[in-house]
Amino acid sequence: MHVAMISMHTSPLDQPGWGDAGGMNVYVINLARQLARRGIGVDVFTRATRPSQGQVVGVEKNLRVINVVAGPYEGLSKEALPTQLAAFSGGVVQFAREEGSSYDLIHSHYWLSGQVGWLLADLIGVPLVHTGHTWAAVKNAYRAVTDTSESEARRICEQQLVDNADTLVVNTDDETNELALHYDVDPAKIAVVTPGADTDLFTPGTNRNTELARRQLGIPLRSKVVAFVGRLQEFKGPQVLLRAVGELLRREPALDVRVVLCGGASGSGASVEAYRKLAEEEGIGGRVRFLGPRPPEELVAVYQAADVVAVPSYNESFGLVAVEAQATGTPVLAARVGGLPLAVVEGETGLLVTGHSEVAWADALAELLDDDPRRLAMGRAAAEHARRFSWATSAAKLAQVYDETLASFVPGTAERDPFGA
Q1: How far is CA 308 from the centre of its chain?
Q2: Which of 300, 319, 333, 360 has its CA 20 to 30 A from that of 230?
């Protein structure tokens, strides 16, 4: 089997945490690797953002990343990418024609890629599998008050994909329910493929790992450490954590707690300085460390250095950070939204918080930070729980979805619905 994956707006080779690179990048590259190791040929098409990388990057046997020139390398925002859909689609067609490549199936990721995948699948007569990762109507339903809403144009494009894709791959049963609530969807089209984590890389390590990780990061050894890993944007909730820690310290001024924010600013108007300013306003500026995004090999140390990892997102289709943190033996404090209740076992591997008020989050932080035996027991349970999730298992399920999609596909019989009302 030969699969064309479309990841137009962000390359799976990009460092998560910068710009638009995040959990989707981790998802695409890890699933593509595992599919390739199962003997499935995978070409991932993405928009070229620097000329030095070259057109074709061989990642490993059966896996390539194809950089398609569509618009300028730099200076083009994600909001402007719809202007390059035709150029990108043409670049994929040109590459396949020049190479003589043929594909049995197209798997698109995110709505921009879905629009490309819909066109290409129609042109070459193969099935389209689509993974939304985030959905406009769902994001709007859960967004922070100050966050920018997703456009109606995007929602219409997503409904078109829901109508025209042969299979919709979602992360959890909760995402299935959200799709049914916010879009007109045929449930028979939906396949649940739970994401994984690199449980060989993300491990608790030895008893000295926490001490070593803190020395490497310059964090006091005896402090209580709360870490946030991800893009610094309102939807991910770093402001929730900063306000909660401010509230906690107003209650317990003697508490030696430190905060590590690991990630880059993302989205319109977002900046690291804005979060620095908020930390100062909360009176915790001297207790907060801002780290740039880290590759997975270095991210392990951030998780291991923390007593608790906070995931205060307004919605997550799954929650890769939560699973990675637990795999290192660190309990997670997460919002009770989206797929996070699947990723975190309430009361056993961490705590789930309803809502995003600083009072509720400060209460939950105090509950974990003030009870060392319970937190340590949660860490042990967290590492065991995380072993249930692996990318190899996810890829095996996805390969099965591909087989079933191909088996039921009859070229030229689908009724094309362009409206997406």
Answers
A1: 20
A2: 360
pTM for this prediction = 0.86
Query: If you write DSSP's letter for every residue of 344-362 in order, what string do you get?
Result: S-BTTTEEEESS--HHHHH
Q: How many CA atoms lie within 13 A of 133 on its CB side?
A: 22
Q: Rounded to whole angstroms, how far apart are CA atoms 117 and 55?
A: 20
Kindly state the helix (H) or strand (E) to which residue 88 belongs, with its residue range. Answer: helix 85-99
Rounded-to-integer distance, Cα 388 and Cα 175, Å: 20
| 2-196+391-408 against 209-386: fold identical | yes
In this prediction, residue 75 carries a pLDDT of 80
State the average pLDDT over residues 274-300.
94
For β-strands 56-60 and 63-68, DSSP reports them as antiparallel
Q: Which of 343, 17, 41 is nearest to 194 (CA)?
A: 343
What's the CATH architecture for 209-386?
Answer: 3-Layer(aba) Sandwich (3.40)
Instruction: Give the per-residue pLDDT at 350.
Output: 97
Q: What contacts 226, CB < 8 A, 6 or more positions away?
A: 241, 245, 257, 258, 259, 260, 306, 307, 308, 309, 310, 333, 365, 369
Residue 120: C-alpha distances to residues 86, 96, 108, 335, 419 (Å): 11, 11, 10, 38, 18
pLDDT reported for residue 70? 95
The whole-angstrom separation of Cα 388 and Cα 383 is 9
Q: Give every CB contact of residue 264 below 8 A, 6+ residues apart in sequence.
A: 17, 18, 19, 231, 232, 272, 292, 293
Using CA atoms, how far apart are residues 378 and 144, in angstroms rounded to an integer? Answer: 29
Average pLDDT over residues 208-234: 91
Q: How confident is the model at residue 142 (pLDDT cuts 50, 70, 90)?
A: confident
Angle ∠(294,268,195) on CA atoms, nearest 5: 45
Band of residue 413 on the pLDDT scale cut at 50, 70, 90: low
Residues 407, 412: Cα–Cα separation, whole Å: 15
Band (pLDDT 50/70/90 cuts) for residue 51 is: confident
Which CATH class, in words, describes the domain spanning 2-196+391-408? alpha beta
- How far is residue 324's CA from residue 389's CA, in Å, rounded to a whole number? 10
Phi, psi of 333 (to 5 degrees): -110, 110
**Model pLDDT for residues 105-141, shown as the tens digit of each residue:** 999 999 999 999 999 999 999 999 999 999 999 999 9
Domain ranges of the chain: 2-196+391-408, 209-386
